[in-house]
Amino acid sequence: MDTINKTRHTSYVLPACPVEATLELIGGKWKGIVLFYLLDGRLRFSELKRKIGCVTQRMLTKQLRELEASGLVNRIVYAEVPPRVEYELTKEGKSLEPVLQLLKQWGEEHAMNLIAERQQTVVTEQASE
């Protein structure tokens, strides 16, 4: 979903609206990972791409633009040849640190086991076909 130009709703009504609004800003396959790596400080585009690994340049650019438009990431362009661009979290982006750390902790405690169980179920289902 293109979250720069289009939101899911024009109004967010309680009780779940803050969760939905937050997920609209940070949701997506790569945004959480980008935000997590930027917790350590400013990174060049190539450094960020290397840390993430399997994201395409086009997708990373799109996600960074959306995060910048949302006010969570600053883009710093240096007037050099070749041009150098770095990204850092804004004050609002940094305020997500406890949330991102809790997601990391939950992933360590639960997600890896759930993914392994899901994969085992798929293998079992395929073997029984």
TrEMBL record:
Which superkingdom?
Bacteria
Species for this entry: Stieleria magnilauensis
Q: Which Gene3D superfamilies match?
A: Winged helix-like DNA-binding domain superfamily/Winged helix DNA-binding domain
Q: Where is the HTH hxlR-type domain?
A: 17-115
Q: Which gene encodes it?
A: yybR
**Pfam family, any one:** HxlR
Q: What is this protein called?
A: HTH-type transcriptional regulator YybR
Q: Which UniProt keywords apply?
A: DNA-binding, Transcription, Transcription regulation
What lineage does the source organism belong to?
Bacteria, Pseudomonadati, Planctomycetota, Planctomycetia, Pirellulales
